[in-house]
Structures are given as C-alpha cells and as structure tokens.
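User: Okay, second chain of the day. Same drill as before: sequence in, structure tokens out.
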Amino acid sequence: MGCVFSTPKDTGGNRRRPGNIGDVSVYVPGLRIPKPVDFSQALGDHLSKSLVEKLSALRTRIVVMAGQEGPTITRTRRKTQHGGSTLADLQQALEDYLPVLLGLVKDGSQLQYRVQFLWINQEDEAEETALSNAWYEVLSVLHLMATLLLSQANLLLLPRTSADGYQPKVSEENRRASVDIFLKAAGYLDCAVRHVLPHFPSELRRNLPVDLAEGVLRALCLQALGQGVDIQLGMAIDSTKATLAVKRRLACEMVKYWQLKITL
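Assistant: Same drill. Structure tokens below.
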C-alpha cells in the first residue's frame, strides 16, 4: 500500500492524472431514540424548580424531534419549519442538553441514580433498555450525536451529477466538510469509550445494548477515522499538488485504522 520506500517512475510532465475514486458509502447504525422521562417526580425534591424544568424542556425537545424524524433522518435531508436541516437541529438540541445533563453526575452525585432513562432502537422497537443511571443517558446522547454526524457525512458524500451529465461527482467542498464531521464523530465516540464507560460497573457494562458495547463504539470510532483519511487520500489523488509522500502517509494511516477495526 505504499508504506515502504518508493519513488515515482515517471517524472515527465505528461503524467496522466488518475480518475476520481469511487463513491464513498458511510455505515450509519440505527438511531437510538429516547423515550419521555418525568424529571419532576424523580428530582423535584433535590433540585430547583427552574433546573428541573430546564432538563425537562431540553430532553422533551430531543424526544419529540427524534421520534418524528428518526425513521427518515438517515435517508433524506428534510427541512424543519424553521428552515434548518433536521440533522443540525437535533444535533444542536443534544449539544444544549449534554452540559446540563452532566450536572447529574458531577462529583459522583447520587442524583445520577434517581432517574430511569429509557431508549429504544428505531430499527427494532422491541429492543429497549431502561437504566436508572445518568451515565447511561450521557453514553446514549454521545452515541446519538456521533450517529447523526455519520448521517450528515453520508448526505454530503452522495454523488451529484456533474456538468456534463455523465459522471456523478462529489464536490471538494463537501469532501472537506465531511472530513471535519468524521473527526468530530470520532471524538464523541472516543469520549464515550475513555471517559463514560469507565463509570459503569463491569456487570452493567456487559448488559448494555449492543450498540453501546465498548467494542462496537471503538469499531465505529475507527470507521470514522478511517473514512476521514479515505476522503483525504481521494482528494490527494485528485490533486496535482499533493506529493507522493503525502499520499503514502495517508494510505498508511487508512490501512492502520481499517486493520485495527478488523481486529476488534
């Protein structure tokens, strides 16, 4: 794969530029969707009314949006009544909710065990898991954020018909944007593995839904990193300015990520 010393054989000026690499398909796991929670009953005697109401409002927004748009969100770029993409709106709702949610687990607070959080997999509604542990909620939120980002990357990499009407082509702008999205998704997944899973007792970790198992999260993280490098390699191949050393380094990185994923 070019991971050993190599030099270009053709140094002439008429080197034929390689064609665009094939379409990139992003694997997106099924969305895990939250079900309603009554924060007031569980936390009403322990937190201020305003904070309980804030938690309820933020989570209810996520529940409604994910429930309405979940079945189609990974396949279409639908628009909300506010004009923004569903992916961006739901992602923002999760980003608003997460820092408030983390208050329940701050400094080992016992509040983390007072609320039962229920999530279901949209592809199999019979598969639902309810746990009275706020770390489970944090883990589920990070997983959903990463899944939405992978969906967004998939949409960006859908081929668009070129001007000549023949060859589908993804714009360089979209490819560059997808790289940033892959890195962000990998960051959420890495955070889930390194900083959230360690808070679960061993027995509870073994009983988590398969989508939240450590091996699955690590594999999904490596997939995001590998596909980000894959896109960068494709852009380097298409560029006349990219050096052989750059292409070789990207190819080696891509092989490393995919090999690590296979060993999991």
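Confidence is low (pLDDT under 50) at residues 4-21, 76-84.

User: Thanks, on to the next one.
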